[in-house]
Amino acid sequence: MEINKTITPPAKTMARLYSVHLGKIFSNLSIVFVVIGLASLVTVIATGLMFLFGLILIIISLGTVFLYIPNYFDMLLSGTEFMGGVAGFLNQFWPVFTPLAIVLAGVSIVLLAMDKHERHTGRIVLSSIIVGIAVLTLILLIAGVGVN
Amino acid sequence: MNTLNLKILGAGKINPTINIDGKSVKFKKNEFGSYSTNFTTEKEQVEIVIYKHLEINGKLWFLMSILFFIISLFGLLDTRYDRKCVVVDCKFLVNLQEKTEMTIKVNSLTNEGKAVECTCNTEFQEISNQYYVDKRAKKRLKILLAVKIILWLALIGTVIALVATRS
Description:
The complex is a heterodimer of chains A (148) and B (167). Chain A has helices spanning 11-60, 65-68, 72-91, 94-113, 121-142; one strand at 2-3. With 148 residues, chain A is an all-alpha fold. Chain A has one domain. In chain A, α1 (11-60) packs across α5 (121-142) and α4 (94-113) runs antiparallel to α5 (121-142). Chain A starts with a strand and ends in a 6-residue tail after the last helix. With 167 residues, chain B is of the alpha+beta class. Chain B has one domain (2-166). In chain B, 26% of the residues lie in helices and 38% in strands. In chain B, the strands form two sheets. A five-stranded mixed beta sheet of chain B has the order 4-5-1-8-9, with no helix packed on it. Chain B is elongated. Chain B starts with a strand and ends with a helix. Chains A and B meet through β1 and α1 of A and α1, β10 and α2 of B.
């Protein structure tokens, strides 16, 4: 049944609905920002791992890989160079995005926890995990793990 | 002093706002989506209102929706509005005794019939008890969708213009 009757919610209800909505958006944004922060950390580790696996392949194949792919070593070096470029690009952004992820996840926890009407346990747990990951990422990046 | 022991079964699926005598009451909630409370009052009669408010019905609906749309990176990280725009509108007047037991069972969404089924050990009067689709909310959602499409087109146009002027 479709009716034209509309009851405007009280200001208190609207404030609650808006704060929950904002809390969910902040939670989503913090996920994206922490992924960007993590990416700069992961690409550096991935570059090192890629080079390491490339060397292991030479040892395992007892050098026969050069018979099949003569320019194997050049390819390996150019691959790591490219990955290093990506890591360098991402390293420009982590000082902004990782602290922002912590702030947004923290604000989303506060906004969602303030809702007395409905429980948002899943979201609050997710945002808490994001805060944990972001803090750990920040510590590792400051310690120089992800910096070229 | 009269006590109203109110149980609302299946309230979790509609998540309504429940007021007793105009006051927001704290409910105990269990994992099956049922609410229960003990309300004590000196009055002989209380008014129970069960209503589901829609965010889109707020006074600042357009401003807030656009603000959320921009913050959430043009809606990419936004949560969805309830597209069905279904509203629950129930109001009861309940005569109280020293101990009044009332159970309200929330029905599944239907176009006809009652939104809730009530049982009470005292007399009660049903003022309203219905599910309905809020036409105005639906219209507002359509307006929002149109505005969001226009904003997306404007963004794409700006990006294309920027790229074209640089190259």
